Amino acid sequence: MDVRFPLKDVDVRLVAAARTVEFPLYADKYWQMNQREFAMQVGGVADYYACDGREVEYCPVDGADRNSMELYLNGSVYGAILHQRKILPMHGSSFIYNGKGIMLCGEAGAGKSSLTASFCLDGAEFLTDDVTPIMLKDNAPFIWALSDRIKLWSDALKQLDIVNTGLNKIHPKTEKYYVPMDASSGYFIRLITVYILEMADESKADIEEISGSVKFAALRNEIYRVEYLKGMPENESFFFKNLVDISNLVKVFRFRRPEGAHVNEMKRFLEKHLFSLQQDMDPDGFN
User: Fold this and answer.
1) How would you write the pLDDT of the chain (287 residues) with one tens digit per residue?
2) Cβ contacts of residue 240 below 8 Å, gap of 6+?
3) How far apart are CA 4 and CA 7, in angstroms?
4) 161 and 48: one domain?
């Protein structure tokens, strides 16, 4: 069975039985891992194994559909491969706005994907969805664009006027869909600004800049599958240095949005903030 995986240099194999992690440093009911190996069992879908940042095995259960298998393969397993390669994976979606790399982070349901889609439907360039690899090059953080689709709930599709006819569900029992996006995969764009989305009880949206140790802690919180660090102790110190560098070079804002607010309304609010922010930047946008 042919499946999609973001990294083309990873050997992804369908097997009769996926390997297991013999000596895990961290394990729970889903995952077992150490510094170089990762295994995951998803009931009703598949067993997965990844090692050395280069190999992935998957063994589907009878009747499992391809979209469900890819959901975990392109999420938790992809995240494990990035961790193994010591490429910082952030739990965020990203796009290019006026030539600048913007990343939206936050918990599931905060609106990362729908806001990203709203910007991209209005001319922004799509980069990543849900998992955003960050690499430091010449002491500056860059987004590695490796996505070509975005996952959206049915209510977000309605708000964005996207018809779900012909779209694949990410899982047969959920009303969330894969939406293809125009994207140029494999290139790097400088990360300039991070917004951490939060749902709030307030009637109006609010954006405030965060700094210092709060800024660092907020970014660390947004590492994709931060739990993996319990089984990959080398990554804690490595990513610590990455996050210190990012904290010194990137503006980070907390974006509180009212629950139930229309995605396009929040897009316009965020766009005004981005516009005013970029007016204050130097020509390269790096101050």
Assistant:
1) 689 999 999 999 999 999 999 999 999 999 999 999 999 999 999 999 999 999 999 999 999 999 999 999 999 999 999 999 999 999 999 999 999 999 999 988 899 999 999 999 999 999 999 999 999 999 899 999 999 999 999 999 999 999 999 999 999 999 999 999 987 778 899 999 999 999 988 789 999 999 999 999 999 999 999 999 999 999 999 999 999 999 999 999 999 999 889 999 999 999 999 999 877 765 555 44
2) none
3) 9
4) no
**Side chain identity, residue 124:** A
Show the domain range for 68.
11-84
Please check whether residues 74 and 105 belong to one and the same domain: no
**CB 146 within 8 Å of CB 129:** no
Residue 287 lies in a domain: no
Look up residue 4 and give its two tokens: 């999609």
What is the torsional sign of CA 164, 262, 211, 286?
positive
Q: From the CB of residue 191, how many other CB atoms can be counted at a distance below 10 Å?
A: 25
The pTM assigned to this predicted structure is 0.94
Residues 263 and 244 reside in one and the same domain: yes
